[in-house]
Amino acid sequence: MKPTVSTIFVLMAVVLSAQQPISLDDALKMALKSHPRVREAEQLVEAAHARRRQLLAEFAPFLSMHSVGSEGRGDTGFMSMLEPSRMFMLPRDAFFAASLTFQWRIFTSARDAAARDVGGFEVREAEQALALARLQVAYRVRKAFAEAAYRTE
Questions:
Q1: What are the phi and psi torsion angles at 62 (to 5°)?
Q2: β-strands 95-103, 87-89: how paired?
């Protein structure tokens, strides 16, 4: 396997620090915290969680508020929702109308379950990739640590 920058860094830290030797546990903690593959895999896990939330957001309850108002000049109008051909003129007095709407999709033809399954699969896949990246980094650190210990003897 090709040595990476953090593996070489750990190896050099072990070899060059004769006054203050580093333990294997410390080397593993340093590598797992700062290795680019592990950081990338952690970001992919966060992205998978965000994607799952995005997939499920379509099926969440929805609350909206709409409003219209006028200063009362009497020269503006609005269309009627019941009869779009009729135009109503706003009164000369100040005018304000508002509506509050709550929506929740109850029947979704199992699309919500499919979105939940797909999102869960993506999260599990990203978490397994993170676990694999951590194992690979730990293996390389242990290998570099063993090689450094062998060379110092």
A1: -130, 130
A2: unpaired
